Each structure stands twice: as C-alpha cells, then as structure tokens.
Fold each of these.
Amino acid sequence: MLDNRFIKENLQAVKENIKNRNMNADADLVVSLYDQRTAAVTELQGWQQKKNENAAAMKQKLDPETRQKYIDEGKQIKDKISTLEASLSDIEAKLDDAARQIPNMAHPDVPIGKVDTENLEVKKVGTPRKFDFKPKDHVALGESLDLIDFDRGTKVSGPKFYYLKNEAVFLEEALIMYALNILRKHGFTTFITPDVAKEEILKGIGFNPRGNESNVYAIEDEGTCLVATAEITLGGFHSGEVLDKNRLPLFYCGLSHCFRREAGAAGHFSKGLYRVHQFDKVEMFVYCLPEQSDEIHEKLRLIEEEIFTGLGIPFRVVDTCTGDLGAPAYRKWDLEAWMPGRADEEHPDGDYGEVTSTSNCTDYQARRLNVKFHDDDGKNKYVHMLNGTAIAVGRAMLAIMENYQNADGSITVPEALVPFCGFDKIGPKTEVSSPVYVPSKTKK
C-alpha cells in the first residue's frame, strides 16, 4: 500500500493515477480518515497524560476528601480513554481498508490506457514461422497426438481442468528443469513452495481472497487459500522481518502448482491450456534496496527473454499500460509469444499471446507485509519487491506445440529441452493408449 502521508501530500497525483488505472478507489476518504486518526491519536495522548498526572497525584499524601476526588477523576479518565481507544480502533480499521484500495503509483513512462490493446510494443524477437500447410491449434494437436484430455478433465474436475498424457508429461517436466537451471545459473535460490497460504499473506501481496471478483480458491473455515502463484508464498517468506542490508538483493525462484478461478474469463483465445484453473509455474521473486529495483526489473525481463529465445519461440515485449497494471505494480513488462492457433480473420497467420510478465512493485507489497531492512542510518526502511514468471508451463507448452508442429501431424521438441525429456519428436501413436471418451447419454 502507499504511505498515508504520501497520499495526503500528493492527493491530486494519486487521484489521477487511480483514474489512469481505471480503478475505483477513494483517495479523499483515505485523507479524511488519516486526519481523523491523527486527531484521535492526539486526543488520546492528551488523556493518557492526564491519567499519568492523576496517578502521580494519588501517590502523594492526601486527605480522604481529596483522595476520593482523584479516585473519581481517575475513573472518568479511564472511561474516556476506553471510549477513545475504541473509536481510534474503528477509524484505523476503516483507514486500512480504504488505503488498501489505492493502487501503487505508476512509473512515469508507463503508457496511459485502459485495456491490453493499448500496451506499448517495445521489442520483437524472432520471426513467426510461415507454414506450407494449414497449422492446427494446440487443442487439436493435443487430441490427435494423445497428449491432453480436456474432456475427461471436465468430467472429473470441471471445465478448464485437463489431463496431460504421454510425452506431454515429460515435456512439462523438461520445461520446469530447463527454467530452473537457467535461474540457478543466474544465482537464484530455488524453492518448492506450499500450495496454501494464509489470507493475510494474499492480501499483503495484493490478491483479494474472498468475494465474487476473487481469482483464488478460498479454503472454507481455514482462513487460507490455494495459491494462484508462488509470488504469494515467496513474498510471504520474509513477512514481518527486518532483513540484513548486506544480504540484499535476495533472488528467489519457486516452483508451485497454481490455482485460479479465472472468474469472468472467457473468449475464443482462452480455450485449451491458455486459461485454466490449475497449472505449474516457476516464479522469480526479488527483495532489494529501493535504489536497485529499476535495474533488477530489467534483469528479470532479460531472463524471461533468455528463456524464450532459448526455446526458439518468436515473441514480443510490451510495456503494460496503466489500465492493465495490477494494483501493486509500478511497472510491468509482458512477454507475448507467437501463437499460430490464434489465427482469425483479422490475424490469418496467428497472433501474440501473453506467456510471462515481470513487475516492479516497489515498496507497495512490503508495506502490507511489513518487510524492512536495517539501513546505515540506523532506521528500518521498507524493501522493494519484484516478481516475474520464468515459465508458466501450460502457455509455454501451447506455444511449443503450435510453433513446432509438422505437416505429418508430429511436433519437434526444441533442442534446449531434448536433454531433459529424452526425445526430439512427438509423433502420432500407432495405437490409442486409452479408450476414446464418449460421454454417456444415460439419464440418472
């Protein structure tokens, strides 16, 4: 969250930022509550001083009448303090709730816009392949090569769940090992993180754990949720801690299952592996000093570029516009891979789709999670926190299947993954490994 004093002193800029981000938040209410809190604290401190003076007077030698006067006065002061403390607690709760709705300030160079089509393309890497045959999308490829079973995933778990089968299982593990080895080369500490986190950790990172608009699965009566990304668990790792300045920056990466409700997500290009309720992901996360975060943000983006360049997937980099930024992000870069399966009338050969992103969240999450470092001036100050996707396995696999398909229906495995999966091509099966799924029409 933003510092309340900062909001008060930069009110117009904060309101303009909310407008540019196309969000609903009441900065005026934050300032009003902040002023109420300041006044309430001042009044409470005045009555606490009276309490101390009353207690000091009671220690003196007093006649019975005077002593009773101080006793009565002490009770009145105690009651007043109790009332003020309750009022202050209520104001602070309202202030905290209102302040949490205020998004982070955006980097001055972030393009102004409301939707992802207004993101600014800053780089293209690789040239989309020209097919001499009509390419299939990954759903058709997955079914014809017996790699993915969406129908049975829906039957067993519901829509947007799936089974990976045969070579796709090894391809997923290969992508994970490929990404982890690149991150190990860059000095990241590797983790396998919990798949469950407390609601206060999700709130600290910037996720809404409850309500119709929540994108996470809450665990009933536990006060916990399934994680939507290892950003949550890596970000919560040092919550409530004061870090050694000399150890910063800390480069972490975490492998986790990710669970997302994807509430309201729909559309032609959300089918198949692109938008699902469960997937595996390797996430990067960094704790650093404030003066380091811009440079480290560039480093995270370059690592993402290295990963997809090594896979031979054409992609572009976009500077995410204000309306497409999540509330915690100061700036966000997206990598969008070329996906032939996105072909339509407007884009007959395919189009780009997001596969990774990296965000600099400055001290926005650190304030919520109370993560600080001990500075040379003896003061504890908030760290900056950054995150970035190394590999979201489903989307990476989608891009590989569609870009590396062959006229005979087979898929060539990118050279970088062959050592990890043990084969260089996925071909049609000579016989189906399991019976064809035909939904029963029998009514119960």
Amino acid sequence: MKRFLLPLAAVGALFLTSCQSQMEVSVELTNWNPTDTGKVWARFVQVTDDNVKALDSALVEDGRVTLQAELDAPQIFFVQIDGIQPPVMLFGWKESVEITGDAAILPFAPEFSGSDFADSLYAFTKNQTDFQAQARQMEGEYGRAMQTGDMTTAEALTQRFNGMYEKNEKDMVRFAENNGALGAFVANRYLYQADLESLKKVLAGVDGDHLKATEVVKLTERVAKLEAVSIGNKIPELTQATPDGTPLAISSVTGKVILVDFWASWCRPCRAQNPDLVALYNEFHAKGFEIVGVSFDENKEAWVEAIAQDGLAWPQMSDLKGWNNAAAELFSIRAIPQNVVTDSKGKIALRNASIEDLRAYLAKNLK
C-alpha cells in the first residue's frame, strides 16, 4: 500500500475518509423503475458461520441509497436490494465503496469504485463463475461422448479439464497470496488442498491491523493444525470402528510404510483412485507396505459395499459422521481423497502423495 506525506492542513480534510470507523456503501442504479408501492429496501447484511444479520437498512429513492455499518475487522458482507438479484457480495472494513449498475439487467452486474477489496473480489468471483460454466459445459460434452462411445473425445476432454483445473488452482493460490485478509477468505473457502507453505504465504501477506479478521483467525488455526501433522512429525493417534464394530487405532497398524487413506464411498475421485491403490498394495504389501482407510461415510451399508466392490483388503475405520469425522479436525482435511504416509518410525514422510510419488517412495524404501 502506497503511503504519502501530507501537509498538516490537508490532514483534517482527509481525516473522515482515511480514519473512518464505519463501512459505507453507496448505491446508484440506472433504469430504476420500482413496482408496487415504490418502496424498495436495501440492506447491509452480515453473514457469519452461524448467523445472518442486517446491520443497516434504508429505502432506495430515485435509484440511490447509502448504507453504513460498524465492522470490527475486514469481512465478507452483502448488499441486498429488493428486486435486484443476486445480492452484491463485498469484502471490506473501514472504507467507502460506490456501487453502480443497471437495475433493468439481471443478473445484476455491479461496478465498483473506492475499494481495491471490492474490485479484487469481483474479479475473483467472475473468474470462478466463468470456470464453473466451462466445467459444466465440458461435463455435458463428456457425457455425450461416453454415451456414443467416443473415447477419443472423452479422453481429450479429460485432459483439457485437468489442465484447466490445475491452472485455476494456481490462479486461486496466487490471488490468495497477494490479497491480504481477502486472500485468507479465499484460502478458507476455495483452497481445500493447498499446501502448508502456500497458506503461510497467505498469512504473511495480511496487514498487521487485519490479523483479528475472522477469516485470518480461521486460517491461522488451520495452519497450526497442518503444522502439527506436517512432514517430519509423528502421526497423531486416531481410533475409530472397523466395519464389524471393533475399535482400531492407527498405532496398532504395523508396516514399514503405512498409507492412511482418507476417502468415502460417495467420493468419485476416491473410488477412481482405488484400483491404483489395490495394485500398489498387491505389489508392495509383502515388502512391508500397509494401508489403513479412514472413511468419511455416514451410511455404513454404502461404506461396506464400496470396500467389497473395490476389493480393498486393508484395514478400514470410520466414525460414520461424514464431514464431521474426527479425522477432518485432527488432520485439517477439507477435501478428499487425501492421504498421509508414515515411515517405519511412525513419522509423516509424505502428505497427499500422488500414485506416482507413492510408487517412487515405496520402490526406494521397500527393497
């Protein structure tokens, strides 16, 4: 952020804008033509994990309205106007933002001024909307190719999507690392499998006066949990029930190399990976390779059926709580499949290893 030295006389003139205590949002709509009684309300809406609250509301008059709210730190909020969809999502704290747009065009496409956060968030969400639209289109094309047996097209679409997905992931990481507290929000909501070092970079880019922001606090806690289960640390204990109800502790599973595989019967990428895990297990098990599956299922029958269908011969455990599985909190897991690989001393040697990396590690360490 650029800083300027100002003449003393100018300080007073800028005091209200540079040191304001409120978040202020001004809206100006063109083609304003309200229906019914003409009374249209706008609301400044705060959304948290457990609450939705209108912090301010006002009537829209001649397409104009101003809303204000006291915020204790930078955060996500929405400006909701009757008849205008979708609500405008913003990120900010102590600044003034001006929103303009055409009320006759839906979905509403706002333009912003006065806030770098607002511009950055809008650009980010637009990129994600475009990505999701492309993904849906490709999914439809892929389905049609599979129905007609056009495997060449299906494979080309798969390769194209994988490249597009990887680029989008890298773009999101880059955005998070360079947008301070807003980057923390993006990391928490979008970067489910970001590595520890990337998340540390996001935190390092947060301004000192934004460290109390809810999203920054959440990311700080997430980083701490990931550090506790990072490479070189001893794997924490986890005990859950096997399909027959017997308690199983990770520490009781023996092997020179152990893969803890976090998966679920309903997770298509997990199921798609299982044949490769079975092949690795069959190749290296006699040399000391063991796997223990930790399922994020809720339905026991579906879990047991998937184990049988996929031929998973290794120990399995679950508390049948879905995403509330205790392993999610212990290992800071926000997406599956994920995995942790431990060495003969029970220390974490790899996290989220690909099949290729896992094969290379087994070939090197199990002779």
Amino acid sequence: MSRSPQKRSSGCGCLSVSAFAVLVIVLFAVGMSVFGGAVSLPFSSKEPVPADVPPAAAEPAPVVDLIAGDRPSEQLIEWSEQISSDTRIDPQAVRAYGIAERWAAENFPTCNLSWNTLAGLGFVESRHGTYNGDWLNRSHLDENGVAEPRIIGIALDGSPGFAEIRDTDNGVLDGDTEYDRAVGPMQFIPSTWNQYVVDIRGTGAPDPQQIDDAAASAANLLCFGGRDLATEAGWTEAIRAYNQSDEYVADVRDAAANYALNQSA
C-alpha cells in the first residue's frame, strides 16, 4: 500500500489583498475537489476530532445476509444514503465498508473492526476510489463499484521514499512485469492482495479494483492474526500493517474520527 501525495497551487500576487484572499480560497477548494479530498474552509462547521486511538467507532452497519444476491452490499443502500450525504463518500464505497464490517464481525468476532476505520484507509489511499495521480482524468466507481480508470500506483523500484518490490504477479494485476505496484481503491500490492483476498461478491474472480472486494480484503488484513481493533495497540498494529509511517497512522485516525462524527474528512 502506498500513499498518494497532494499538491497545492499558488496565486500570482497581482491582486488586492482581499481579492487575492478570495481567489486563494476558491483555487484551493477547486484543487482539493480535483483530488477528491474534503475542504476545510475558515467558515467550516465541522467538529474538531479527538486524537484518541483507536478513533471512536461509527454506528455499525445493519446485519445482512453475506451471501444474498450478486452483490450483498446492495442490502445497505438505504443505510448508506444519509451517511454518504453527510460524509461526502461515494455511496458505493460506504456500502463496501459496511459489508466489510459485517464480514469481519462474522469471521473475526473479536476484531471489533468498524466501517469508519476502513473508510479512513480508503480516504488516505485513494479518496475512496477517486484519486489516481491524474488531475485531469480522475477515477470514479462505475455502476459495478469498479474504479475507472483503474488505479495503479507507481513502480516500487526502490526510488527515494519507496521500497523495492520485484514483480510477484507477472503483471496480471498491475501491468508491470518488472516491479510491483499498488492497485485499486485500497491500494493492495499484488502479493498482499493474493494473501488476504476476499471474494465478498462470490464471483469466483475477486478484483482489487472493485470496492466491495477491496474493502473486505482490507478487513481481512486488518483483523488477521487475532488483532483487537478496540484497543490502542491492536488498532495501531493493524494500520501499520498497511503502512509503517506514524503520519499515515495519524491521517487514517483523523479521517476515521471525522466519519464517526458523520462529517467529511
């Protein structure tokens, strides 16, 4: 898994102070909307989030039948609507995190994984399937929950700040036969995907670019080994299984805490 850097544009300094300030706010909001991120402006009414670890758990998703229909997450359509409106997360992503929470509750009953922790990861990794590194051709989740265009990270070739991971999947998932690349909304390295993959839709062909499969597989990774995410040690260890960075852990915590408050990250 890898993080996606954010960029900011700067103004020209040729306007009056008041006009320049307004322009900076507008440009910043537009720039952040391109990235799929939330914008916190001076007049924002968002509640501040606590620094608690683990972050508070959001209200859980309803109990559903994990094998019902072609896409079990569709049972959560009604549940997801208001959450999507409040948090500005694509409703398909909300449902994916919710069905993954229910999957974890059934398969790892002592894990205590909440959907908003998965949403925190999804926000940091790809802005819930919308950030792919290309400002002008952002990804989106299609009607089947698949990221289009596909989200494929940079080559993990040992460049400064990145590990060197030689190809493990013959380029099947990432199109690279020399180095591995993180793929999909939850940014799985191919070898990690193959270790933790969950076919939540029961298709026989789970896809890391499909948000339901990706979120359930992330739940498997987080809960694997008997972690209890209701504890500080368990939650931190789980997030570090994704990325060892302290900054990364804090970013996921902040996003998850915002979602627990039913507001955008």
